Amino acid sequence: MATKRKRTNPKLEPYKKLLIKIKEQITGDIRGLSDENNGSGNDRGGDVSGHALHMADVATDMYDREFTLGLAANDRELLYQVNEALNRIDEGNYGHCSLCKKPIPATRLKAIPHTQTCLKCQELMESKRR
Ligand SMILES: [Zn+2]
Fold it and tell me: 0.85 cut: is pTM over it?
């Protein structure tokens, strides 16, 4: 039985934040930046009597999928890579080249946090691609 432990390496936290930021940029989800969420003025007990539960939550999954399909191909690719990188952080093997298994230099990770390969392997792949 695999118990999933949430133990993100503190060293990887900055990259995780970078990745989440990229993700938010792609999906246009910038709720975290808005200042509208002001919860003050609560001390009088407003007239919130019986708020309707909306069923919209059920559709979210499908919406997400369609939304993803609506993205430009390169955005989708990027989103995929970002999600993969986040997975690797959770699994604890983030920051290693997927080809040569060597650690990817921090400078490269900071520039391209979703990269899967070191610069050498990247160049190798690009020269092979044609
Ligand atoms: Zn490599």
Answer: no
Give the distance (Å) from ligand 1 centre to CA of residue 118: 4
Centroid of ligand 1 to alpha carbon of 91 (angstroms)? 19
Distance 96 CA to ligand 1 centre (A): 8
3-state class (DSSP) for residue 96: strand
* 29: amino acid identity, one letter: D
Report the alpha-carbon distance of residue 103 to residue 71 in Å, rounded: 32
Show me where the domains of the chain are located.
Answer: 10-24+70-130
Q: Which two tokens stand for residue 91?
A: 């699994």
CATH number listed for the domain at residues 10-24+70-130: 1.20.120.910
Q: How confident is the prediction for the chain on average, in pLDDT?
A: 77
Here the tokens at position 26 are: 């792609």
